[in-house]
Write a structure and sequence with these properties.
InterPro entries: Thump-like (IPR041497). The chain is of the alpha+beta class. The chain contains four helices and six strands; from the N terminus they run E-H-H-E-E-E-H-E-H-E. The strands form two sheets. The protein has a four-stranded antiparallel β-sheet.
Length: 114
């Protein structure tokens, strides 16, 4: 049975690299009742918290299409008072440290971007 691909829900799961290398992302999705957010990228999503030793669960506070050249995310991150961001690089070309500098964040909260 294939795993559905659709937009992120309330929670995101970043599977452990061992799960990805073993080709078990779809199996983990089925076990958790989750779906993929992209056919080629291992992130899983669900509308309820996913508890598993096989990945890191994150709560989604905002989701938008990514455009590295325009970086509209910078304005939205400022609105959310985000001052530090952990960028999960899946399917993203470029240098993460350079991208983080271009965001020029100054808020009080920390977030993860994928």
């Amino acid at each position: 049975m294939d795993v559905e691909v659709r937009a992120p829900g309330e929670y995101l799961l970043d599977p452990d690299p061992v799960v990805t290398r073993a080709g078990l992302v779809a199996e983990l999705a089925r076990e958790l009742g989750a779906w993929k957010i992209d056919e080629r990228i291992a992130f899983l999503s669900a509308d309820t918290p996913m508890r598993t030793p096989f990945g890191r669960s994150l709560r989604v506070i905002d989701s938008a299409p990514w455009n590295q050249k325009q970086l509209p995310a910078s304005a939205r991150l400022c609105e959310l008072d985000i001052g530090a961001v952990d960028i999960r690089r899946r399917g993203l070309a470029g240098d993460v440290d350079q991208l983080r500098k271009r965001l020029k964040l100054s808020g009080a909260r920390r977030a993860t971007s994928s």
